[in-house]
Amino acid sequence: MRKLVGFAGCVAFLAVAALTSGSAWAADPGKKAPAMKPVVEPWNPWMIRLRTLVVEPEDSGKVDQIAGSGLKNSTSTVPELDVSYFFTPNVAAELILGVTRHHVTGTGTITGVDVGKATLLPPTLTLQYHFTNFGAFKPYVGAGPNYTVFFNQKAAGGVVTAVKFKNTFGVALQAGFDYMLDRHWGLNVDVKKLFLEPDFNATIGGLARTGTDNLNPWLISGGVTYKF
Fold first, then answer.
1. Residue 213 resides in a domain
2. Looking at residue 17, what is its pLDDT?
3. Bridge partners for 114 per DSSP
4. What's this model's pTM, rounded to 2 decimal places?
5. Three-state DSSP class for residue 7
């Protein structure tokens, strides 16, 4: 019985000592519990966007050998994919990928003349500055070169029996914004002005002709953003 009492006393003494030392440690302002380091998500520089793109060209141009002639270009609406790489949180490069098809008809002294159709591949690379001090709203501006390739060209027949647009360099100016819904997903609105004036050769009325089609389109798009 005396041994049991002694054992119980030892257990009680150890418990009191542990509680006392713990309280003393907690009360000592010089002793701090080790802080947990915040979890930092790794930086990923890649972003993609899937957008619906409306290409609205100017109705301007001419056939060199026909005074008073003009050209009209149809509007095109297509899906468009772009890929962005961020060098810093503010500076990025964006490559725009899409294909559009346009129908060209005559105006002025050649009103009613159906010139033909052509498909355009206009890859455009812009260097952008992104403003990051507006929270989820992230506007940007950009500018860069464009090189438009024309293919699948087809003369309308009748008066125009041949047409060929020349691949052309251009310049793009850009403004837009992303509205981020969370770390990865967002909504995007983007507007570009592309300065593009390709020359062409055509056979009109059995005669070889040259000219310039001042496309200079507005590229207006909206869609979904995904930031990796």
1. yes
2. 43
3. 105
4. 0.80
5. helix
Three-state DSSP class for residue 43: coil
The domain of 102 spans 46-227
Choice among 5-9, 86-90, 148-152, 180-184 with the minimum mean pLDDT: 5-9
Q: What is the rounded CA–CA span in Å between residue 76 and residue 101?
A: 6
Give residue-wise pLDDT tens across range 118-159.
Answer: 999 999 999 999 999 999 999 999 999 999 999 999 999 999
Asked if residue 190 belongs to a domain, the reply is yes
Does residue 21 belong to any structural domain of this protein? Answer: no
- Cα–Cα dist 212/155, whole Å: 16
Q: CATH number for the domain including 158?
A: 2.40.160.20
- For residue 10, being part of any structural domain is answered with no
Using only the alpha carbons of the chain, give its radius of gyration: 34
Q: Which residues pair with 160 in a beta bridge?
A: 157, 204
